[in-house]
């Protein structure tokens, strides 16, 4: 089986390639789409991980060009070339939710997609066009925060914080997250069994932000004091980021199945 993964230098793409090569005899290549779209001849499975994530929030046109336009063009080429399975890495951000303080905000099959950021908006727009293209086999994944060794983004910020601070607010919260190893395992099953549909993968246990920082500190030989007082104080202050950091936002769990397929 010939597999092509976009996002050559990305965290997900590099880990997927290593996992697939270790697990199977598949032919796996990664490619960058920055300088043009690749040839798709003889490709059986195309996994599109490349995306614009951390651009300026007001650069709506660029988000749309990369996350929607480029995705659709790539899928059109894939269909024409006879690629039999197209896998699109979308995002939990298509729901437009940041989490609530004090109570869990649960995403289920009844939760509407109402993205509020250019990133989420462009990803949902790509999803909708892909679903109208009549691809032989289409899989869309909407992962929450992906984390693991050497992970960039928000998780890396928690790692750096855990290495520096002696005290951290304690807040009782729950957030869906997905370890990179879990994602790779799921992707292997998706490819091997040609699983189609929209998947909402997550770890078997929810993440607590405060406990995660404490665990990261311990892994680096440090001990952090988790302060409930600071937690209450932080949540009472008019800080815009508090819901994203300490709010509870989770995918529902259906029969302990963490690869949730919403009908």
Question: What does this molecule look like?
Answer:
The strands form four sheets. A seven-stranded mixed β-sheet has the order 2-1-3-4-6-10-13, with helices on both faces. Strands 5-12 form a two-stranded parallel ribbon. The protein has a two-stranded parallel sheet with strand order 7-9. 37% of the residues lie in helices and 19% in strands. The chain has one domain (2-147, 177-205, 250-261): NAD(P)-binding Rossmann-like Domain (Rossmann fold). It is an alpha/beta fold and 263 residues long. It has helices spanning 11-23, 60-81, 118-131, 154-162, 180-193, 209-219, 228-236, 242-246, and strands spanning 2-6, 27-31, 45-48, 85-89, 104-107, 138-141, 145-147, 167-169, 177-179, 197-201, 225-227, 248-251, 259-261. Helix 4 crosses helix 6. The mean pLDDT is 92.
Total DSSP E strands: 13
| Largest sheet properties | 7 strands, mixed
The shape, in one word, is: globular
**Secondary-structure element string:** EHEEHEEHEEHEEHEHEHHEE
> How many discrete domains?
1
Poorly predicted residue ranges? none
Structural class: alpha/beta
- Proportion of helical residues: 25-40%
Q: How far apart, in Å, are the first and last alpha carbons?
A: 29 Å
